[in-house]
């Protein structure tokens, strides 16, 4: 596919060819660049079954679409569910976990690649660096922290990864309402909600990313200050 795009690019010497190239489906371009998805999710086993089913559906569909998983490296909670399901369906898994959490979250020792780091900051940085896109499943305070960090990073232009929030059974409704409240009170711009997708279906989350949806590029006017530039 990249060879075809390269030849088309070389041939774009007139407006007709340029229009042809620009009209190529966005999913072609997106599928070329999204090979690995970073997933943030719960390590708790004390959750309702529909949350586990969601993780299973995501792992299964990612494997079907030949997408690799980067996640927090645990064998418990939704983390363990998605890792095992993806591997059972032929997918590859990279787990990133801190030394302290190896025992606390019961390291999943069947990962295709395991990265053990010293701090949560290192863990989050590597998970972000290894992914081409981010999907957020229901989780606790750690998952929420990961979501906000990756969202702020996109807002200020530190990365361009698409982000999807899977709002199973309305789990994230209070969070989304809080973001609306933040906007209403003037602490954020309304466009911040355009920097991530929200769906109740994990399969839809994957397909939306592969089709190039939710890839809005933020500009500096989206910052709370509304300034045209980010001061260094």
Brief characterization of the structure:
This protein is an alpha/beta fold. Helix content is 45%, strand content 13%. It is built from 10 helices and 7 strands.
Provide key terms for this protein:
232 residues; alpha/beta; Rossmann fold; seven-stranded parallel beta sheet; 7 strands; 45% helix; disordered C terminus
What features would you describe in this structure?
- The protein is of the alpha/beta class and 232 residues long.
- It has a domain at 35-168 and 194-213: Rossmann fold (3-Layer(aba) Sandwich), CATH 3.40.50.
- It contains 10 helices and 7 strands.
- It has helices at 2-11, 15-22, 26-33, 49-64, 77-88, 101-104, 120-130, 141-155, 173-184, 202-210, and strands at residues 36-40, 68-71, 93-98, 113-117, 133-136, 163-166, 197-199.
- A 7-stranded parallel sheet has the order 4-3-2-1-5-6-7, sandwiched between helices.
- The longest helix has 16 residues, at 49-64.
- The chain is globular.
- The termini are far apart.
- The model is unreliable at 1-32 and 228-232 (pLDDT under 50).
């Amino acid at each position: 596919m990249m060879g075809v795009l390269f030849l088309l690019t070389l041939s774009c010497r007139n407006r007709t060819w340029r229009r042809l190239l620009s009209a190529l489906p966005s999913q072609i371009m997106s599928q070329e660049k999204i090979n690995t998805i970073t997933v943030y999710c719960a390590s708790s086993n004390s959750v309702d079954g529909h949350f586990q089913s969601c993780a299973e559906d995501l792992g299964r569909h990612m494997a079907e679409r030949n997408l690799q998983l980067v996640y927090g490296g645990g064998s418990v909670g939704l983390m363990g569910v998605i890792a095992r399901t993806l591997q059972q369906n032929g997918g590859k898994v990279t787990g990133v976990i801190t030394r302290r959490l190896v025992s606390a979250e019961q390291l999943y020792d069947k990962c295709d690649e395991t990265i053990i780091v010293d701090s949560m900051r290192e863990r989050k940085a590597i998970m972000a660096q290894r992914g081409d896109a981010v999907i957020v499943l229901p989780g606790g305070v750690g998952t929420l922290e990961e979501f906000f960090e990756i969202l702020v990073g996109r807002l200020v232009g530190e990365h361009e990864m698409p982000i999807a929030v899977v709002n199973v059974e309305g789990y994230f409704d209070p969070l989304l309402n809080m973001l609306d409240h933040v906007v209403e009170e003037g602490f954020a711009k309304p466009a911040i909600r355009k920097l991530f997708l929200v769906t109740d279906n994990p399969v839809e989350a994957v397909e939306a990313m592969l089709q190039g949806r939710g890839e809005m590029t933020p500009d500096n006017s989206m910052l709370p200050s509304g300034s045209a530039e980010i001061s260094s």
